[in-house]
Amino acid sequence: MIFVFVFIFGLALGSFLNVVINRLGSDKSALKGRSVCPHCRAVIAWYDNIPLISFAILGARCRSCHQKISWQYPLVELGTAIALVLLYFRFDIMPTFWGYALFTAFLIIIFVYDLKTYLILDRVSVPAMGIACIVSILLGRDVVSLLLGATLGAGFFAAQFFLSGGTWVGDGDIRLGAVMGLMLGWQLLLVALFIAYVIGAAVGIVLLASRRKQASSQVPFGPFLTLATFVTLLYGQELLTWYVNVALL
User: Fold this and answer.
1) Residue-range domain boundaries for the chain
2) Per-residue pLDDT for 181 more than 90?
3) Is the dihedral angle over the CA atoms 76, 80, 86, 87 positive or is it negative?
4) Helices then strands (H, E): number in the chain?
5) Which residues of 12-51 are buried (b: 16+ CB within 10 A; e: fewer)?
6) What are phi and psi of 68, to 5 degrees?
7) What is the band of 218 on the pLDDT scale with cuts at 50, 70, 90?
8) What is the pLDDT of residues 167-179, one digit of tens each?
């Protein structure tokens, strides 16, 4: 039954992450002020702000102006809840669960904001670096591996950025590479990068085949990197062990 409470906690966390995401582009603090409708600016009552439930009861429309409510809200809430449940089943309620839950919160913010704006903001990635470093050390990770991972992650994308003049990747990906390295260490960073490029290639093929994108279209890479990082947090060590065993056959 603990996973039910984890799921509910994940919904609440997802609701908070929506507030953070929506206020990133402004000077408004995520911790201060009531949530308002982005269309009519009416203050949202607490009973209209219950994760998933209020969205369904309101029929995805604002109570005041009846404009549509973005599907971002329930999707982020549900996605965060599912992510935390997966972490719970993988690590139980242990320090690793709480540390990775914090990592996941940053990853979700970067995922959604980059998907919406094609930007990875320093005001998210820089604090994420510090949190990732501190939490990873507290979880007993090797400091050398973490620093090497941050260097490799940032250097990998920095090389692409400068070689292409910023056309292959954005400068935000450089900081995200450092975040990934500090969350994973250098070995699992390589696993995450491999997963990200596989997912990116698969999605790219689907988008081209469906004519939703052209070969010259810009696609944010942050969502692939953050998703791959989360998968690696869950199963990276097993994937690395499997690959090494296969390579040695």
Assistant:
1) 1-93, 102-249
2) yes
3) positive
4) 8, 0
5) ebbbbbbbbbbbbeeeeeeeeeebebeeeeeebeeebbeb
6) -65, 140
7) confident
8) 888 899 999 999 9
